[in-house]
Amino acid sequence: MTTRANPLEPRPVPTLYFIGVTTTQSSIMRVFPKWSDILDLGAEIVGYDAPIHAPAATYEAIVRHIKEDPLSMGALVTTHKIDLLDATRDMFDYLDPYAELCGEISCISKREGRLEGYAKDPITAGLSWEAFVQSGHWGPTSAHVMCIGAGGSAVAISVYVSGLPEPADRPKRFVVVQRSLPRLEKLQAIHASLDTDIEFEYLLNEDPVKNDEIMASLPPGSMVINATGMGKDRPGSPVTDNGLFPVNGLVWELNYRGELDFLHQAERQAESRNLTVEDGWVYFLHGWSQVIAEAFHLDLTPELFAKLDEAASTIHE
């Protein structure tokens, strides 16, 4: 199923909503029918597109529909995670601890008449991080993390990393670069509530040339993350073609579709700078499978995830 002219009509079959910006372009529209068959859900997916920072009434309408329509099972929320919760917090009967801490929701589900909101991204970020960051990477390297963007994904990744028990698995310094002050201040407040030895730094900037300079100052082995949405929801990259990624570094493009300028910049330097480059596909798989399991009340075992991964890989762009 794709985005409908009236996505808020009563649903004839169990339905999962996808609340985003350009939902028809997402691979989930082709993946979900395969997953529905594997999981025996008999369900459909419907996209609900809204502009970035949409009016509160837009978020209220979709959340009210999910709450009141019997066959609307829940939703995955992307891009709008913070704004949606800000607009609809009083409509939820339960928010999980991560949603309370991070001030966002990525998953809406219903259980025994209650509307529930979850911030699944710290879990998703952790599973994705573990898939490509070697255990103990940060101990011998003294490397840093530079995260460009301070939205929901930046919150999730930093919260996850802060909770890692082994010092060698935690970067000593985590630099967040954001173009708007309110997001930086909100992230800083979240970090202030954490018990962590990571040194967080918050930089207000939207100039790609300045981002190049910050990136150039990182120690070898550092990680650079594109958490801006640029290359998918917005054109371009947060760094320029002249920017140099850290030698022996990790580069994480959180997008898996779109122009992916940042990803391609890193790929061009992968050999000369000895980079490990990761896109957002594994994040995508964990994000969606976690939400589907919550919305349809499933036990997502490693074996079941492997089946979903295999089915999705056939259409990976």
Secondary structure layout:
Elements lengths: L14 E6 L7 H12 L4 E6 L6 H13 L3 E6 L3 H8 L5 E2 L1 H6 L4 E5 L2 E5 L2 H12 L5 H4 L3 E4 L3 H11 L10 E6 L2 H12 L6 E6 L3 H9 L6 E4 L23 E4 L7 H9 L6 E3 L2 H15 L6 H12 L4
Helix pairs in contact: 1-12, 2-3, 5-7, 5-11
What does this structure look like?
This protein is an alpha/beta fold and 317 residues long. The chain has 2 domains: 137 residues, Rossmann fold; 153 residues, NAD(P)-binding Rossmann-like Domain (Rossmann fold), CATH 3.40.50. 39% of the residues lie in helices and 18% in strands. The protein has 12 helices and 12 strands. The protein has a 6-stranded mixed beta sheet with strand order 2-1-3-5-6-4, with helices on both faces. A 6-stranded parallel beta sheet has the order 9-8-7-10-11-12, with helices on both faces. Helix 7 links the parallel strand 7 and strand 8. The chain is globular. 45% of the residues are buried. The mean pLDDT is 93.
Task: For the largest sheet, list the strands in their spatial order.
Answer: 2-1-3-5-6-4
List segments where confidence is low: pLDDT < 50 over at least 5 consecutive residues.
Answer: none
- Strand proportion, as a percent range, falls in 15-25%
Radius of gyration of CA atoms, rounded to a whole number: 19 Å
Helix content: 25-40%
Residue-averaged pLDDT: 93
Total of DSSP H or I helical runs spanning 4+ residues = 12
The coarse silhouette is: globular
What's the structural domain tally? 2
Please trace the helix and strand order, writing H or E for each element.
EHEHEHEHEEHHEHEHEHEEHEHH
Give me the CATH architecture of the largest domain, please.
3-Layer(aba) Sandwich
Largest sheet: 6 strands, mixed
